[in-house]
Design a protein that fits this description.
The complex is a heterodimer of chains A (505) and B (344).
Chain A (H helix, E strand, L loop, with lengths): L7 E10 L2 E11 L4 E5 L6 H9 L6 E6 L2 E3 L4 H7 L1 E4 L11 H6 L13 H14 L15 H14 L4 E5 L7 H16 L3 E5 L3 H7 L2 E6 L2 E7 L5 H9 L17 E10 L3 E9 L3 E6 L5 H8 L7 E6 L2 E3 L4 H6 L2 E4 L3 H5 L6 H6 L7 E2 L2 E2 L1 H14 L16 H13 L5 E5 L7 H16 L3 E6 L2 H7 L2 E6 L2 E7 L5 H8 L3 H7 L1
Parallel strand pairs in A: 3-8, 3-9, 6-7, 7-8, 13-20, 13-21, 16-19, 19-20
Antiparallel strand pairs in A: 1-2, 1-4, 4-5, 9-10, 11-12, 11-14, 14-15, 17-18, 21-22
Chain B lengths: L1 H12 L3 H19 L2 H4 L1 H30 L7 H19 L3 H25 L4 H19 L5 E2 L5 H8 L10 H19 L1 H11 L1 H6 L4 H27 L1 E2 L8 H11 L11 H20 L6 H32 L5
Antiparallel strand pairs in B: 1-2
Chain lengths: 505, 344
Amino acid sequence: MKVTEPILKTKGMTKAFSGVIVLRNVDFNIYPGEIHALIGENGAGKSTLVKILDGALSPTYGEIFLEGQKIKIPNPLVARKLGISLMHQEPQVFPDLDVTENIFAGHTRDNGDLFINWREKRERARELLDLLNLNIDEKASLKGMSIANQQMVEILCALSTNAKVIIMDEPTAVLTLAEVKKLFSIIEKLKEQGKAIVFISHRLDEVKIIASRITVLRDGNKVCERMVENTTKDLMVQLMIGRTLNEQITKEEATVGETLLEVKNLTLPGQFKNVSIKVNRGEIVTIAGLVGAGQTEVACSIFGITPPESGKIFIKGKEEKINNPMEAIRKGLAMVPEDRLQTGLLLPLSVKHNMTLPSLGKISKLTWINFKQENSLVEAYIKRLSIILRNTNQAIAEISGGNQQKIVLSKWLMTQPEIYILDKPTRGIDVGAKAEVYNLINTLAKEGKGVLMISSELEEIVHLSDRAYVMSEGIITAVFERKELSEERIMKAASITKKKVVQSS
Amino acid sequence: MKNRTQSSANNKIMFKPEYATILIIIFILGLSAIYKPELFTKAVQRRELFQSIMLWLPLIVTVAMGMMMVITTGCIDVSVGSIVGATGMFVGFLFKFYNAPFWVGVLAAIVVGMMAGALNGLFISYFRVNFLVVTLATMNIWRGLAFVITDGVEIGASYMPEQMSLLVLKGPIPGIGIPWIIWIALFFVIITVFFMKYSHFGREVYAVGSNENAAKLRGINVKKVRFVVFTLTGMFSGIAGLLYGARFGFFSPGDTGNGMELIVIASTVIGGVSIMGGRGSIIGVVLGCLLLGMVQTLIPSLGFSSFYNTAIYGLIIIIALIIDRGIKIRQSREVVAKKGVMGE
């Protein structure tokens, strides 16, 4: 490997969000003509780092150098002008415009023409499409186009602005195997043209195939930068996880009883297939897997938000049809959604009103709410979950993420369900609050409830679950009982791609 | 290759709102012919009907060119009718009390209209107030000012310069009886088609409406685009205010432009401009205007009370929105179907 200077590098890059440091002193080097994989667990700081390079976030401390010169990137437009292009996980395209219009949207003015010469633009688009051997019509509408092709259009947009550095944030997460192959051949071509590629992926197999250099981030710190050829997949996993066990997280003994929830061969085309899961009284069961593997979709189907197309759901041994969340709640289910800000809470309302919303029936007579009863109920749960607030009339938006999560939990606790579906309950909350959430989950199990938890955090899966189902690309690839659980095993099962599934079955 | 055939097949099944509009126009004409044949068989009546549609159409079309852009960016402007009224009254006021020549009236209509539109744009883009709230407020402000200008008194044709009536009576090409007012609207349509297709700004309007976030990431100044779009809509409404006086021979604070926002929004939505933004064909909008203009003229001609008019516009908007929604749902289903089942 010849020695070259990095085309783009960061020095001491640090980012803090309201006091929480998510990126600490990271030196990231990107070389021309090289594919550089950026890997790390969820929340390790990968997205934050690339968003800083794209100008979407501004660093708290730290410097960026482009071709040896110190630069500032205040917004994405500047990043584009400097030749840095970020491709988001979800392609950011214009569905109502055609391929050519998409490629040139936003920079038709660049060559100083008074009006747009569409003939020339179409020719240029054709050239770019041919350059990458793409069978896409330059006049095709983006509406209804596959995500893979939308991604290609985004790559072409980057090329049309002469991007030198192309950052791809989990580009393969939404692609099929054939599409991934195609993408890789395109990435190779870009590499040959001397572009610097940053490739973010959770799929270590892919990293092994495509990248020549990796940088590993863990909890906002750079663990190492090394060449891929002398790094095994197991070593990558170790580097990514590599922290000491947290003694606080452990499943406490609980008596396991009857089966509360069982689903058999649940299928929703395009989302997941043949998913069978069992939750017994007193158990904590997790669905593990990478982001987008279909776990959330399974949970939504069980809870009746998007009912499955086929498959059976049994609650306490009785087959049930759940067509909407109301029915699910009536049958003793509760679901804490992943995105508490969007779907878990009503932000303009107060803490109190958020908490009692699903159980208003219990504290009201006719239609009139018994305020005294409401207050005492709210106070009781605030005490039980040690939620920190100024008062119960405070707006929910003002309090911290951990406390917000506890309020979402207590909201459902009040309805006294028997089966809890928790979608990434510790996402985006700090360590202390996490421990409290774990305690609460443990308490629920001890009280004889059933908990079905979705998680992408290996540590909590291993230490908390009685049983873990691992999903990848919409199917369950492995089931581990408590004594079989290990982070490595889960990681491997979660990164199984279609090809391997076919081989092993 | 696969993709090419896929996309061309896609275009074939794509529902074109223009076709539907033409069909509805023919259907309504057919119904009217059955209900009251003499409207079409007697030359005098036929001519009268045709004239009243064709002279009303330019006014709606002119305002609709602006409304199309506004709706394409994902907003809506309900103040256009009042801007038509206020600029009309202001122009009439200049004619009556200052004996202003025709060109001053034209200039005033353009400037006042633009200012009114810019005010909308300023609040919506830069003060981030919801577009409905802003235009609802300015709708009342301008209607109120229309009354204030002359203390509520109408301004008749006798005060207007001669050119005003010539706009409707004479055309630029001798021998062909197409009056100026139609040529003017046609000119606006052609200019708008050209600008939406070939100007940087036109493409940016579509981009903002199609995916605002992506537009921002591409460095498009979303605020500026919206500001300009509202300003242009104001300008078109101002010009329509002047044309109103030419068409009807009077300016009235209560009547001029009254309810026009509803007609124009209905025409635009019927024309296939998605209320969610991003999509819009100008020819479709012109056809939508034709449909609405026709309905409006036919209702009294068929002997129904014109009190039905506004109720019918409202109904038409709802029907158009349901169709729009239907298209959206079908398209998203197609996308899901194409993705196929994972794991296969």
